[in-house]
């Protein structure tokens, strides 16, 4: 089977497994609705913390509330999409410990699709909804001087950001295979990463900004392109074209994550060995 055939088979397996979990979650519709609402409210506490900060200050790192809300909305929505699609990757360590990961290896479906779709949870739509609401308010309130390029860049940021976070989920799962768990290490880069990006780069040291730009390029989720949309200079010198580099960065991250996943599977040793 070629690469294209393997990809189509993986997507088909993912769709079937996810649909099974969706049907299961929709059995009790009231419970599902309450869970989604609760998820929306809990994830919204992060933005409430930002609002509380701005009750005491006018700017944070030189950025106004609508500008930071733009960063928050982009990060939360992009991460929410990745979390919906691949959020179950962080429990891979538990599967390895209890031996159930071995059963995935012998099933006639790509392992990545099985792990990614496992316990697919529509309740995570609450995070996406909450982030999108904040993003919508920010786009209206930030006083952006709109151009066709800036209008196009907003959906590009969301799609590319979701792909970058998805790559981090997959790479973290590959690391869990090597380390036989380390879910908290993965969470530090996924959940920790989205929290970091909710604040302007000007409040962090330049060494951290460089690391998040060049080593683990989470800055291309929102910091770099959002600086262009808002007409702000980026804290470190970057060429102007990098504002539009998020799709290229996302493609590179996904390719590297795929290689890491394959390496992790090849190195896996069953708990019974």
Structure, described:
The chain has 273 residues and is an all-alpha fold. It has one domain. 71% of the residues lie in helices and 0% in strands. It has 13 helices and no strands. It has helices at 3-25, 29-43, 45-54, 65-86, 92-98, 101-106, 111-117, 125-141, 148-179, 183-197, 206-215, 223-230, 246-267. α2 packs across α8 (125-141), α4 (65-86) crosses α9 (148-179) and α9 (148-179) packs antiparallel against α10 (183-197). The radius of gyration is 19 Å and the shape is globular. The chain starts with a helix and ends in a 6-residue tail after the last helix. The model has no long low-confidence stretch (mean pLDDT 89). Pfam families: ABC2_membrane_6 (PF06182). This is ABC-2 family transporter protein. Keywords: Membrane, Transmembrane, Transmembrane helix. InterPro entries: ABC-2_transporter-like (IPR010390). It comes from Streptomyces chartreusis.
